[in-house]
Design brief:
CATH class of the largest domain: Alpha Beta
Helix content: 40-55%
CATH superfamily of the largest domain: 5'-nuclease
Order of helices and strands: EHHEHHEHEEEHHHHHHHH
Strand content: 5-15%
Length: about 300
């Protein structure tokens, strides 16, 4: 099968922002540590995988995501990105575009939605996905031949490996997060239901809709506090359905002007040189950029 690599870029930009020393600056004196770290990640990925079809998704829907309209407190626990980091995100997008990579970003959809929509569009054409991210939310997208790749830990798993990592099947991830909540995204979940209880409930009932339709059976499960869970689910039924709206990855997000089949395009050598000058890349990174550019087109 053809493989479509789908990169959750923001995860790796943030990782570089927090891990790279604050000693890199551009020609105007702005910090560039995140760009330097992200560039190393992207170049290593290209050198290892040599992908022919690739999309790199960035988060632009910080407080304008459709989920914020549904639930204004969505991700409200996150501090806004400082201007120093926002500038670096723009440089990272420009770098990917100059390398011939398809860049996905949208003001109303998150990177997860763009990744899911791209993969959904390519499945009928016989493509499998390799999702480069450690984010458990993205595991819900995995089908039989897909892989998720935690690049930093060099761990890969397919649809059959999701339960060992998260306690539920790939198809249950959104329901699972709706039940036990997701503190990272400020989704409360159902009062009194934690990760283990959510996994037990889904193992028994299969999905959230079946669970909500058979609440009378919950008190009889061999699960501590089962009767109280049934009462909470009855009281918070509408909340559970709302949380699932938030945790379900969209498969119909606009994916913009990507190359046909997300094919990697020829690199723009002039743009790469300009970026290398502006960002003050060292000789090793410049050489790797030139090599990456020469491997396209």
């Amino acid at each position: 099968m053809n493989t479509l690599h789908l990169v959750d870029a923001s995860l790796y930009v943030f990782r570089a922002w927090h891990s790279m020393p604050d000693e890199f600056h551009d020609a105007e004196g702005w910090p560039t540590n995140a760009v330097h770290g992200f560039a190393r990640f992207v170049l290593e990925l290209l050198e290892k995988e040599r992908p022919r079809h690739i999309a790199v998704a960035f988060d632009e829907a910080l407080d304008s995501c459709f989920r914020n309209r549904i639930y204004p407190a969505y991700k409200a626990n996150r501090e806004p990105a400082p201007e120093e980091l926002k500038r670096q995100f723009r440089h990272c997008k420009a770098l990917c575009a100059a390398l011939g990579l398809n860049v996905l970003a949208h003001g109303e959809y998150e990177a997860d939605d763009l990744i899911g929509s791209a993969l959904h569009a390519m499945r009928p054409k016989g493509y499998r996905g390799v999702i480069v991210s450690a984010d458990k939310d993205l595991s819900q997208l995995l089908h039989e031949r897909d892989e998720q790749w935690d690049y930093a830990r060099n761990q890969r798993w397919g649809v059959n490996g999701v339960k060992a990592r998260h306690g539920v099947e790939a198809r249950q991830i959104a329901d699972y997060l709706a039940l036990c909540g997701d503190a990272v995204d400020n989704i409360p979940g159902i009062t009194g239901i934690g990760a283990k209880s959510a996994a037990v409930l889904l193992a028994h009932f299969g999905d959230l809709d079946t669970l909500l339709g058979r609440l009378d059976e919950v008190p009889f499960l061999r699960l501590r506090g089962a009767a109280q869970m049934a009462a909470r689910l009855r009281e918070q039924r509408e909340h559970a359905l709302l949380w699932r709206q938030l945790t379900t990855i969209s498969l119909d997000a606009p994916i913009g002007d990507a190359e046909p089949d997300f094919r990697r395009a020829a690199a723009d050598a002039g743009m790469l040189e300009s970026l290398a000058d502006a960002l003050r890349f060292g000789p090793v990174t410049r050489r790797r950029l030139q090599e990456a550019a020469s491997s396209t087109g």
